[in-house]
Amino acid sequence: MATVLSVSGSPSASSRTNRLLRHLDRRLTAQGHEVIPLDVRTVPAEALLGADFKHPAIVEVTELFERADGIVVGTPVYKASYSGVLKALLDLLPQYALLGKTVLPLATGGSTAHVLAIDYALRPVLSSMGAAHIVQGWFTLDKDITVQEDGSLTVAPAATEALTQIVDQFSTALGRRPVLAAAG
């Protein structure tokens, strides 16, 4: 099947966004995809904030994007937009880092007032980076994601149903990925 890069744009290791992505990664893996998790918060701050394109961590992340057939991008919503740490990473990637890729945008937040952050903030950036196909994204309310004492995740039934459909659509879209001719 396909190689999927699952990018968590949360600055917190214990965030609902991060945990939700890793939960969805298991579904993609069960569908036969190779999933590579990437937590942007683990990229050295000096590389991100210093715009060090040649930093080994940035070079490695760029290679992960090149290798992937599909990208899942998850972010908490802050101030009606995606996270700053995700923005810093996207700014350091090549202009067309998503060329030919199928992309699934996901967001979490505390209020439905932020539900359009995917379409009005994140989707235009992903599109400008050359994504071949950006599937329907999904916004999950924080209240619908519960982290149990053992670290496991429970997602409200309605949100689970929607996320299952969205992830399955993404998986199907990966199978229909267009083949790009090599330049030159």
From TrEMBL:
Which superkingdom heads the taxonomic lineage of this protein's source?
Answer: Bacteria
Q: Which residues form the signal peptide?
A: none
Q: Name all NADPH-dependent FMN reductase-like domain ranges.
A: 3-144
Q: Is Nuclease given among the entry's keywords? A: no
Could you tell me the Gene Ontology terms of the biological process aspect for this record? Answer: alkanesulfonate catabolic process
Q: Which Pfam families match?
A: FMN_red (PF03358)
- Gene3D superfamilies to which the protein is assigned, alphabetical: 3.40.50.360
Q: What positions belong to coiled-coil segments?
A: none
Q: Which SUPFAM superfamilies match?
A: Flavoproteins
Q: Which GO terms describe its molecular function?
A: FMN reductase [NAD(P)H] activity
The cross-references to InterPro entries, in alphabetical order and at most eight, read: Flavoprotein-like_sf, FMN_Rdtase-like_dom, NAD(P)H-dep_FMN_reductase, NADPH-dep_FMN_reduc_SsuE
Q: What keywords appear on the UniProt entry?
A: Flavoprotein, FMN, Oxidoreductase
> What is the protein named?
NADPH-dependent FMN reductase
Source species: Streptomyces canus
